[in-house]
Amino acid sequence: MAIGKVEICGVDTASLPVLTNERMRELFPLVHGGDKAAREEFIQGNLRLVLSVVQRFSHRSENADDLFQVGCIGLIKALDHFDVSQNVRFSTYAVPMIIGEIRRYLRDNNPIRVSRSLRDTAYKALQCRDKLVTSLGREPTVQEMAEHLGIPQEDVVFSLEAIQDPVSLFEPVYHDGGDAIYIMDQVKDDKHGDDGWTEKIAIRDALARLNEREKKILRLRFFEGRTQMEVAGEIGISQAQVSRLEKNALLHMRKLVSSQ
User: Fold this and answer.
1) Helix (H, G, I), strand (E, B), or coil: what is residue 66?
2) How many helices (H) and strands (E) does the chain have?
3) d(CA 9, CA 143)
4) DSSP class of residue 158?
5) What local confidence, expressed as pLDDT, does residue 37 receive?
6) Which candidate, 54, 128, 127, 42, places its Cα nearest to that of 79?
7) Are 51 and 8 in contact (CB under 8 A)?
8) Which segment of 14-23, 62-71, 138-147 scores lowest on mean pLDDT?
9) Exposed (0-12), middle (13-18) or buried (19+): which is 104, by Cβ within 10 Å?
């Protein structure tokens, strides 16, 4: 079924129940105590969460029913491993687990072949990431993952990059109701770099005109390789705010550079 349809995997998404946080807290001890009825109620009450994650992959040609079923496996794993003693909402813990399960499914069905050893390293890194997200309450850095696994940072980065799905150059990076910015807009052409030094001067001058918060966001994102979630945690704002400030800063710099 297409994701836009009301029915997916034979489930009428419009009629899916929604559990309150209070009800989930009541169900946790019952579920972990082996109560099958409570387990079924909990899973049914969180299927909308799976659906919301599946919709993130709507740009892919994968069958939505298949992704929904795989996402349900991630939901069940999250329920089985959730630690109620941690001060973390279930959805905060479950969403990365569901996304991880779907991404593993997509990688296993990827036509591009990756060596077994590299794939194993990547899976260990993903499992490590899930554990650190739970213990730290945020996205771990590459350094933290490498230290936890006892391998070089380069191995973590290389293995994760090797299993990434290929994307189109025309895939939008930003779209805020106006003109979209595509991946191809950010691809560098090294063959025509005779005037590269003048561009660097223009970029440096444009960067100097940004305010301190914009400078810090761009430095963390593009010079230190941080994720938007990591930047949000360091600055103390939401990921959505980081995304908006980053976009505005880049557009501002583009205008300043083009005017020089």
Assistant:
1) helix
2) 12, 4
3) 40
4) H
5) 92
6) 42
7) yes
8) 14-23
9) middle
Could you give the angle at which helices 90-108 and 116-136 cross, rounded to 10 degrees? 170
For residues 206 and 244, which has the higher predicted lDDT (pLDDT)?
Answer: 244
pLDDT of residue 180 exceeding 60, the answer is no
Residue type at position 211:
N
> How many residues in the chain?
260
- Tokens representing 180? 């979209």
Q: Token pair for residue 63? A: 């069958």
Q: Is the pLDDT of residue 205 over 80?
A: no
Residue 43 and residue 49: Cα distance in Å, rounded?
A: 10
**Span 116-124, average pLDDT:** 78
Phi-psi region of 181 (alpha: psi -120 to 50; beta: other; left: phi over 0): beta
Sign for the pseudo-dihedral over CA of 47, 48, 49, 55: positive
- The answer on pLDDT for 127 being more than 80 is yes
Span between the terminal Cα atoms of the chain, in Å: 52
In which element (H, E) is residue 11 found? strand 11-12
| Burial group, residue 17, by CB count within 10 angstroms (0-12, 13-18, 19+) | exposed
In a 3-state reduction of DSSP, which class is residue 5?
Answer: coil
Q: Is the pLDDT of residue 1 over 50?
A: no
